[in-house]
Amino acid sequence: MREKTSSYQNDKLEFIKNPVVVEFLGLTPDASFNETKLESSIITNLQKFLMEMGKGYAFVARQQHIHTEKQDYYIDLVFYNYILKCFVLIDLKTERITHQDVGQMDMYIRMYDELKKAPDDNPTLGIVLCSETDEDIARYSILHGNEQLFASKYKLYLPTEEELREEIETQKAIFYLQQKDAEEEAGGEPNA
């Protein structure tokens, strides 16, 4: 089973959209906006949310209870990706991501792998779906180099044309830097 899905496992980012545009939820970022309201809207619009998330997602649970010897935990949303052959845990945050959010998701992934995952499943993935990501946290926390833990930004509306242009330029710059780093690690000369 792992051999059949290994090519998908190597490119998990293809299955994890960033940002996730949730304009169809009809939410506005006002004082009443909170994680419970976001979660309820996602469940009400589950089919649209699954389509926005990407390929192969199936809904498993909302507020899934995980009981350990000492404490109870609740995972906001649990999906199974039948292409990747793994569970995908989503923790919803209506604020900028924090290192505590990352640590919490890392713990959820480890608990899920130990307590829920079947032996023939691939390792569980975790996504902290937040209103704002943080470059420092991505660079200096467990997110850096972790192949099972991701931070993805959600947007309540589609970006403007100017925002799209800026994002394209940012992504191009990131791509070229990653390509340059990969070439340097391989001992080749970067293409200019």
Short description:
Residues 14-168 form the YhcG PDDEXK nuclease domain. The chain is an alpha/beta fold and 192 residues long.
Molecular shape: globular
Contiguous low-pLDDT stretches (5 residues minimum) are: none
What is the CATH topology assignment of the largest domain? Trna Endonuclease, Chain: A, domain 1
The figure for the number of domains is: 2
Counting H and I runs of at least 4 residues, what is the number of helices?
6
The structure class reads alpha/beta
Q: Walk across the major sheet and give the strand order.
A: 1-6-5-4-3-2
Name of the top-level CATH class of the largest domain: Alpha Beta
Radius of gyration: 18 Å
Portion in beta strands: 15-25%
Question: Would you list the SSEs in sequence order as H and E?
Answer: HEHHEEEHEHEH
Helix content: 25-40%
Mean pLDDT: 75
Reported for the largest beta sheet, the result is: 6 strands, mixed
Number of strands: 6
Distance between the termini: 41 Å
Could you say what the CATH architecture of the largest domain is? 3-Layer(aba) Sandwich
